[in-house]
Design goal:
mainly alpha, 0% strand
Length: 301
């Protein structure tokens, strides 16, 4: 797939998405309210201390990567096409993003270990399982993608690992957000989900919608596994996945703006969720959803 225009909806959308990626990471990087949360009330929590300190290098890696990503997109827009230098920058961004997810390994291990009080189901659902799965699957797929990515390398392997990484990203988002909703249900009962229409929609979109999106992403990956060139991908289907994922995060943000209120779910989705920048994804997903192949690309298919 190529873009011949100097400025296009796809390029503008991509620029806004990477700007959001950078700005949200910038905010998280320099919001220092988490410092000392392992010693609240004079009681030192070793687990919180270890996981917070371990996650800091990962956050720094994502911050640097987001800055490089923004610069790389600006370079692509300026040059009008992908170059060898762009691929090098992309590889650096992917490695740094992988390091961010790797830094969550201690949180995953901490979340599955029983405490002095015994097994904690809420902690397993909200922290242990999501962090452990994401911190293993996403870095492995991103490192494999980096290994196979290059201007002069065959595209088949890079396409394969890009799609596999996409599966694990959506799976991580499903586990992460579903875990938080399940914790709410454990604490307050299912009646809390039914208390307002927006809670019911959010709960359903999280547990059912994101799961369906994960399954569809896996299905698309299976169907696309033998594709050798990017232009032969189902661009519209990829756009639909990106749009649906972005709308999910946008919906949760807008419900808080329009309906107000504050609870543990909103504290998570708005205050502790480094993936909230994904609410800008429809700006890339929609141009891809309605993308039309040029005659030149069609002849190569």
């Amino acid at each position: 797939m190529t873009e011949n225009k100097t400025v296009s909806p796809l390029k503008v959308g991509l620029l806004i998405v990477v700007a959001s990626y950078f700005l949200f990471t910038l905010h998280a990087m320099f919001t220092l309210q988490w410092l000392g949360e392992w010693n609240i009330g004079g009681h030192f929590n070793f687990g919180v201390f270890i996981t917070d300190i371990a996650a800091l290098p990962g956050l720094m890696a994502r911050f640097i990567g987001s800055l490089i990503a923004f610069g790389a997109v600006v370079l692509v827009i300026k040059k009008g096409q992908l170059q060898s230098s762009t691929y090098k920058l992309l590889k650096i961004v992917l490695v740094l993003e992988a390091l961010y997810w790797l830094s969550l390994v201690p949180s995953g291990i901490w979340g599955i270990l029983p405490s002095a009080r015994g097994f904690n189901l809420s902690f397993l659902l909200s922290t242990g399982l999501p962090c452990l799965v994401a911190s293993i699957t996403i870095p492995v797929s991103l490192f494999a993608l980096v290994r196979n990515l290059g201007l002069n390398k065959p595209q088949k392997a890079a396409i394969k690992w890009s799609l596999i990484a996409g599966i694990f990203y959506v799976l991580a988002f499903w586990l992460n957000n579903s875990g938080m909703w399940l914790v709410m249900v454990i604490q307050k009962g299912f009646g809390y989900v039914l208390s307002t229409p927006q809670y019911l929609v959010s709960f359903s979109a999280t547990l059912v919608g994101l799961l369906a999106l994960t399954i569809y992403t896996a299905y698309l990956t299976k169907k696309s596994m033998g594709i050798e060139q990017v232009q032969n991908l189902r661009i519209g289907s990829i756009g639909a996945i990106l749009t649906a994922l972005g709308v999910y995060y946008l919906w949760n943000y807008l419900t808080w703006i329009f309906f107000g209120g504050w609870n543990q779910w909103y504290a998570w989705i708005l205050g502790h969720n480094l993936d909230l920048w994904l609410l800008s994804l429809p700006l890339v997903g929609l141009p891809l959803l309605f993308y039309k192949k040029s005659v030149k690309e069609t002849s190569k298919s």
